[in-house]
Amino acid sequence: MSEFNKLVFSGVQPTGNLHLGNYLGAIRKFVALQEGNDCIYCVVDLHAITAQLVHEDLRGQIRSIAAAFIASGIDPEKHIVFNQSAVPQHAELAWVFNCVARIGWMNRMTQFKDKAGKDRENASLGLLAYPSLMAADILIYRGTHVPVGDDQKQHLELARDIAMKFNLDYQDNIRTSGLGTDIVVGEEPVHAFFPMVEPLIDGPAPRVMSLRDGTKKMSKSDPSDLSRINLMDDEDAISKKIRKAKTDPDGLPSETEGLKGRPEADNLVGIYAALADKSKTEVLAEFGGQQFSVFKPALVDLAVNVLSPITGEMRRLMEDTSHIDAILKKGGERARVRAEKTMNEVRDIIGFLR
Ligand code: AMP
Ligand code: TRP
């Protein structure tokens, strides 16, 4: 529960091609949340340099994420679309959070462990502090709701831990500055400056799996292009990848119970449901008892119908980058005004002179 104004915030890294996992786990939800909410959607370019410092055509990558947002239906006039590095307050608040968060918290993050691999000592300090910047992205706007895929759940729990520790450590200063609001966290009343962010992870495809292996997440970094549907794939590529998608020999069950222990079938049904804005139960009511030879062509048609207008619009937007650049610049200016307000309050709470 919170007394804070509802604000939706999310971010996508400009690293590699966007795929169906990004679209269903994140961007499609961003679009739906626009109705009736104040939303800020960010291309998180500062995060992009944590795992790999030098990127070929980083500017192009940033523009293509922004193009995907717009092509999917995000309205940059009603809401805010910008790139993170244009608003330096993200990095400034992240520094404060680096002093709030504990090294032990960061070391426990599974994404850090995965990305750092065996040679942890040689990972960048930025990769370790990544979740602290992510918390700052959201909290610099005092964001309350964050639509993401399932893989980001742990990072959002950490954002809550950071917000809570800041609120508790600075409890007295928050009061004497006349800032903050009374909330209850669990049973405990807290005078909070930062809200407890709520992850929005639900839906039929919170974790879209690889088309080659239903136990692995669909990912930008999988060496096999057949494992994912990219947002820039054309009809032929989509059709080929779905036809070749791994399945088991059985037909589709009539109820979701029957998807247990069948990760590939579960994944394809989840993808269909998310693309059709239906539940898995509804999809199985329609396709239960059918073979994949019937289901796959239906999935191809649906995927092409949903994705090809987006792909077409992305291509069109990428032809004239000045339009995208203007959207990002204006979004950055609007975001900066809000971020500076919060940052000034944080400076007052901490006791910096300004
Ligand atoms: P990233 O590309 O890592 O910045 O991810 C952008 C968004 O897409 C985040 O909200 C992720 O949680 C989401 N996402 C990435 N991969 C998947 C996937 N396979 N299934 C569902 N959501 C995903
Ligand atoms: N860590 C997220 C990812 O890899 C991207 C991200 C950065 C983000 N800052 C954020 C997502 C703030 C939500 C809110 O997908």
From TrEMBL:
It is found in: Cytoplasm. Its EC number is 6.1.1.2. One of its GO terms (biological process) is tryptophanyl-tRNA aminoacylation. A motif ('KMSKS' region) lies at residues 217-221. Keywords: Aminoacyl-tRNA synthetase, ATP-binding, Cytoplasm, Ligase, Nucleotide-binding, Protein biosynthesis. L-tryptophan binds at residue 137. A motif ('HIGH' region) lies at residues 14-22. One of its GO terms (cellular component) is cytosol. It catalyses: tRNA(Trp) + L-tryptophan + ATP = L-tryptophyl-tRNA(Trp) + AMP + diphosphate + H(+). PANTHER family: TRYPTOPHAN--TRNA LIGASE, MITOCHONDRIAL. Catalyzes the attachment of tryptophan to tRNA(Trp). This is Tryptophan--tRNA ligase.
